[in-house]
Design brief:
Blueprint (H helix, E strand, L loop, with lengths): L2 H7 L2 E6 L1 H4 L8 H16 L3 E6 L2 H8 L9 H23 L6 E6 L1 H4 L2 H16 L3 E6 L13 H11 L4 E6 L20 E2 L2 H10 L9 H14 L4 E5 L5 H7 L5 E3 L2 H6 L1
Parallel strand pairs: 1-2, 1-5, 2-4, 3-4, 5-7, 6-8
Antiparallel strand pairs: 7-8
Helix pairs in contact: 3-5, 4-5, 8-10, 9-10
Bound molecules: adenosine-5'-diphosphate.
């Protein structure tokens, strides 16, 4: 099962954007990128797909507004920064979707929300209602109430949990790398992109073995965990670069590379 077939088969798609993807080099929200994504997402919706977005970037957006807080490490300032930034982030998404006549909705979640049956039921029903009405829900962690100990901690996990909650058909993580590599491509030109992962344990070994400097750890591990979670519910996942030209369309068309994490059945059936 290749990436275009995953898109063709999926009706309910969760798209997650990391903060490196959404921010420009100078630490601002990359509004033109959001606008291009909204245009491509609108086209997907017109073609009959349903979409939920999981968006990081509140802190970046907050910092660009409150640059005098940049050095403040105090937890309350960091939470305040996210509260300010969340508004800016949602403004940027709203501005991006408005030309396509699409409304967006903000959903802020915490770890506790996923552990409580009544809350998960409410979340699920709200997501279904919004999407059925053609609205694009945009989910982020509620940083104001989530101190370190009770955090979901990363939006890869949040995206996988949201995909499971909504019974999505496909989860797409947009990052600042084309997919999973067997070595660090910044250090080793012979590094190869892994097009298909069927076995997460094997992928984990690969990542640990590829570990030089910062590469081989960090962000990629939470992506493997997200894949494991999603796959255990039968939801395939794609990891791809979010800053490539028209990344969403290109992935669906098979003109952009990425890593497909497949449930065993699909891996065998292809
Ligand atoms: P995001 O902000 O998009 O969630 P992260 O920075 O958390 O992204 O994770 C992506 C990063 O993981 C890549 O830019 C890369 O430096 C690092 N990484 C470590 N090991 C690997 C690997 N084996 N394959 C791909 N990326 C890796």
């Amino acid at each position: 099962m290749n990436i275009p077939s995953l898109f063709a088969k999926a009706r309910k798609i969760v798209l997650k954007f990391g903060s490196n993807t959404l921010a420009t080099g100078n630490g601002k929200i990359n509004a033109p990128l959001l606008e291009k994504f909204a245009e491509q997402a609108a086209a997907l919706i017109r073609s009959g797909k349903q979409i939920i977005i999981v968006s990081s970037g509140a802190q970046v957006a907050g910092l660009s507004a409150m640059d005098k807080w940049a050095r403040k490490k105090d937890i309350h300032y960091r939470q305040a920064l996210c509260a300010v930034g969340q508004v800016k982030l949602m403004n940027a998404w709203e501005h991006a979707f408005t030309p396509w006549g699409i409304h967006i909705a903000q959903i802020l979640l915490t770890r506790d929300d996923f552990g409580d049956t009544t809350r998960t039921l409410n979340m699920r029903n709200t997501l279904f209602t919004l999407v059925d009405e053609g609205i694009v829900p945009i989910i982020n962690e509620n940083d104001t109430v989530s101190v370190e100990e009770i955090k979901i901690g990363d939006n890869d996990t949040l995206a996988a949990q949201s995909a499971i909650l909504w019974s999505a058909d496909l989860l797409v993580l947009f990052s600042d790398i084309d997919g999973l590599y067997n070595k660090n491509p910044k250090e080793d030109p012979a590094a190869q992109l892994v097009a298909e992962v069927r076995d997460i344990a094997e992928a984990r070994r690969l990542v640990k073995a590829s570990g030089t400097s910062e590469f081989g750890t960090g962000g990629i591990l939470t992506k493997l965990e997200a894949a494991e979670r999603a796959l255990s519910y039968g939801i395939p996942m794609i990891l791809a670069h979010g800053c490539r030209e028209r990344a969403l369309e290109a992935l669906a068309a098979g003109t952009q590379p990425g890593t497909a994490f497949l449930v065993h059945q699909e891996a065998r059936g292809s």
